[in-house]
Amino acid sequence: MGKGDKKSRRGKIQRGSYGVRRPRIKKRPTTLEKISVDKKSKP
Predict the structure, then answer these.
(1) Looking at the domain assignment, is residue 22 inside a domain?
(2) pLDDT tens column, 2-26
(3) Is the pTM of this model over 0.70?
């Protein structure tokens, strides 16, 4: 177990891969994207 192990978190970091042990972080929409001019309803 450790850096050489494909299934461990350290091994994923070492290899630069992702999986169940090391999921990708999804980008959250910023407040500017949420309150954009295009999405507002017109009177």
Answers:
(1) yes
(2) 888 988 999 999 999 998 988 998 8
(3) no
